[in-house]
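#help-structures
NK: newbie question, is this the right format to request a structure? protein is LAMI_0A08152g1_1
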Amino acid sequence: MTLVEDATEFVWECYQKHLASPAAKKPLFVFLNGPQGSGKTYTSRRLEQSLSVKSDGHVLVASVSIDDFYLTHADQAALAKSHPDNAYWQGRGLPGTHDLHLLDSCVHQLLTHDEGTIVFPTYDKARYAGTGDRGLPRSLQLPIDIVVFEGWFVGYLPLGETNKSLREAAAEGYGLMEVDEALKSFSQRLWQNKQIPSVGIVISADVVNVYNWRLEQERALGLNQGMSDKQVRLFVQRYMPCYHLYYSRLKSEGFVGHKTLVVEVDHSRKVTGKRFLDAKGAVESK
């Protein structure tokens, strides 16, 4: 089976159980994680389409990216200027470079509104020579039954300032402690928020593939729109400490407190294996 097929069957089964739960009136959130370029955005959009088809259009699905909530270009520039020693906040991408007030507003509407329209932000990564800026918003009709929420650090758990690995990594480059604290704000709002019924999907890959995958994405934006090869390399390097600190645990344990599908992919994004984990991270038999 393909990644989308595996994800569709997993989410559909979880959604049927969700409908029989006390939280059935709320949408089911599907938190989807994968490193840059692994296919999580493509998967989330195909998953949205596949679930809609499977329900004959009766289940309303929305795919949302954590990237949609990046700060505006001007606000990101202000953040970088106010934290000149934090290399991780000199451009978009890491926890701390997002508009949390906007995120809170959208999540609140998804959880509490059963009619009307919700306006989601979008982000155009091609603007400002690849540094990006907010794009045109999109509107969706409420209520939404399933929210596929994807992002490269979705599901990561903060380590805290006493963690030895974090302290050692932070000693090599100022700013990781602030990133970890910002990650805490995200996790509390989303994947560790007990008010949000959710399951998780992890695209498990070797992060050595990230540079080539990211380069493919930028080239797809077109000449003079995306980042140069050198800019891509520098951009990806900012993410590597976080992959080493958080991603391995997520691949191993899944989304703590939630049922998780872990799908292993190779350098060509071909599925090579899968595991189903329960809320405690134990492998479930299927």
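mod (FA): yep, format's fine, and the tokens are attached above. The two ends are 15 Å apart (CA to CA).
NK: thank you!
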